Structures are given as C-alpha cells and as structure tokens.
Amino acid sequence: MEIIKDLDNTFKKGAVVDVRSGDTVKVHQKIKEGAKERVQIFQGLVIRTERKNSHTSRITVRRIASGIGVEKSFLLHSPLVLKIEVTKRSKVRRNYLSYMRKLSGKAARLSGVDFDRQTVNGVVDKHAEEEEAKLAEENAKLAEIHEAEKAAEEAALKAKQDAVVAAHEDSEKEA
Length: 175
Prior knowledge:
The chain is α+β, with helices and mostly antiparallel strands.
C-alpha cells in the first residue's frame, strides 16, 4: 500500500490551488498545435470537483461560448495545466452543480462570497512557472527566426526588383 502511495505522490504537483464547486476560474492550459505550443485560457464555472486528495483529482468547468454550453474537464495535477486562477467564489451547497446546465441568463447567477483572492491564488508551482517561461522564450525565438527569414526574403525581392528596374532603364537608354 505504501508503494502505491509513493508512486501516486511522484505524479502530484507540489502545490495546487484550492478549487471548489461554484468557483469561477481561469485555467491556463498548454495546447500543442503541430510544432507550436501555446497557452490557452479557459474561463468558466466549476460545476464539479472529484477526488480532491488524489493525484487524479479533476474539476469540470462550464462556460457559455457563442450561446452554447461548453464543459471541459481538467486534471489538476496534469503537466498540461499550468495555472488555475480563482476569480470568484460563490455560495453553493452541493458538490455537483448539474442543475446549472438547465439555467441561462439571470437565473444562472450565483451569489458571491468574499474570499481572500491573494491567499487562494498565491499557490506557486515553480515547475509550471518555469515551463511557462520556457514556452514564452521558445515562442520569442521562433518569432525572431520568422522575422529574419522574412527580412531575407524581402531583401532578395528588393534586389530582384532593383535588377529589373536597372535592366529596364538600360533598355530605355538603348532605344
């Protein structure tokens, strides 16, 4: 039994934000598209929390996008989830807010509760911050390489254009 617990703990992050049902959160998730990586922010209401103390702890976040309800489930200890930010905490008496799916507009509002945003969001995961900084650095390098390629291409086009103009002027002088 101890071996299993040790194995579970190797996959856990050092620190995770205390997320509860009824919280409005911003989840920063790493997305890989082809060769590029970027950070996508998904903001919505936490309608479910599962297995809080496990390495497989999960939250389900719901938002309305273009008039359609979208739900995404996030593993809290996943390396793809870089950061979770609690923006609002609401008073709820359930863990699973399935009734929110049927509500829309003003009916879907939850009454807010005061909470210390600095303390809740102050959880720092060094590994995730390093990963995010590395991603930003890689994107900056790629942008720099792209700019250099673009400048070289423009220089080649300019040289070609100058050669055509010079040839045109020479043909006009001969005529």
